């Protein structure tokens, strides 16, 4: 075969290869443009459980529909400002089942604690705990009684203990009684898993700056609860009172 024929055959083969490659690339492009995608929320960082989701933790990406999870979220309002039930790994689709809805505070006691407050359990008996009649949602005042060390009038004794009482917290919400608490996600009428009777502990929502006071009096003194009317929102100035003042 002459060199001209070989060259001509090579040119024809090259042309056919180029045309075939062009058709292939065109078909791939058309197939890619025909892929159906859906925009879903994806974690840009690892989001631990019980974390408030913010905008810098989430991005929205177009993912082929066959790879989109059935519980994936496509609306920013359904993810931003919500709290995670479980950890979400970086790059993972954020699922509705891993978030606590804004209108619900979850199914554990932690989600019932108002922002800025802390849940503190207080030991009670029938006398200090309103005869076992407290239920989650009630409002109480927390009264502490303990011995205050003061200078002794006796020169031979440095200090003496003076019993005093003080209203430690006012209008505190009862979050739980023993291990019974209000489940905000339950149906109306089934919310309180509560039986009345002799209770051993009452868990209250306490302001952060009062937590140490309450814990200290629980350890060093005694605490009693005073039940409030639901309509009573008043607060009075806290004052120390000793035994003589109380008897006046």
Structure description:
This protein is α+β, with helices and mostly antiparallel strands. It folds into two domains: 37-100, Type Iii Antifreeze Protein Isoform Hplc 12, CATH 3.90.1210; 112-180 and 198-231 and 238-246, no CATH class. Helix content is 19%, strand content 30%. The strands form three sheets. Strands 5, 6, 7, 8, 9, 10 and 11 form a seven-stranded antiparallel sheet that branches. It has a two-stranded antiparallel sheet with strand order 1-2. The longest helix has 31 residues, at 3-33. It is rod-shaped. The model is unreliable at 183-195 (pLDDT under 50).
Task: Describe the secondary-structure layout.
Elements: H1 3-33, E1 37-43, E2 58-64, E3 83-84, E4 99-100, E5 117-123, E6 139-151, E7 159-177, E8 180-181, E9 201-207, H2 211-220, E10 222-227, E11 241-242, H3 243-247
Antiparallel strand pairs: 1-2, 3-4, 5-9, 6-7, 6-10, 7-8, 7-9, 7-11
How do you describe this structure in short?
The chain has 248 residues and is α+β, with helices and mostly antiparallel strands. It has three helices and eleven strands. The protein has two domains: 64 residues, Alpha-Beta Complex (Type Iii Antifreeze Protein Isoform Hplc 12); 112 residues, no CATH class.
Features:
single chain; 248 residues; alpha+beta; Type Iii Antifreeze Protein Isoform Hplc 12; 2 domains; seven-stranded antiparallel sheet; two-stranded antiparallel sheet; 19% helix; rod-shaped
């Amino acid at each position: 075969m002459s060199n001209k024929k070989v060259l001509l055959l090579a040119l024809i083969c090259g042309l056919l290869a180029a045309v075939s490659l062009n058709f292939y690339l065109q078909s791939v492009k058309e197939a890619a443009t025909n892929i159906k995608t859906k925009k879903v929320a994806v974690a840009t960082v690892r989001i631990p459980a019980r974390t408030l989701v913010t905008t810098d933790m989430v991005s929205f990406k177009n993912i082929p529909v066959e790879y989109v999870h059935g519980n994936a979220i496509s609306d920013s309002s359904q993810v931003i400002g919500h709290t995670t039930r479980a950890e979400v790994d970086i790059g993972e689709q954020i699922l509705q089942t891993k978030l606590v809805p804004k209108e619900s505070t979850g199914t554990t006691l932690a989600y019932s604690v108002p922002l800025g407050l802390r849940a503190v359990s207080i030991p009670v008996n029938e006398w200090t705990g309103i005869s076992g009649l407290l239920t989650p949602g009630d409002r109480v005042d927390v009264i502490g009684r303990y011995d205050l060390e003061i200078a002794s009038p006796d020169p031979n004794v440095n200090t003496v203990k003076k019993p005093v009482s003080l209203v430690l917290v006012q209008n505190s919400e009862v979050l739980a009684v023993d291990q019974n608490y209000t489940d905000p996600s339950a149906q109306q009428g089934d919310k309180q898993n509560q039986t009345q009777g002799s209770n051993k502990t009452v868990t209250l929502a306490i302001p952060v700056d009062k937590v140490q006071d309450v814990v200290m009096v629980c350890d060093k003194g005694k605490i009693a609860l005073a039940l409030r009317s639901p309509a009573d929102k008043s607060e009075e100035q806290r004052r120390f009172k000793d035994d003589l003042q109380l008897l006046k």
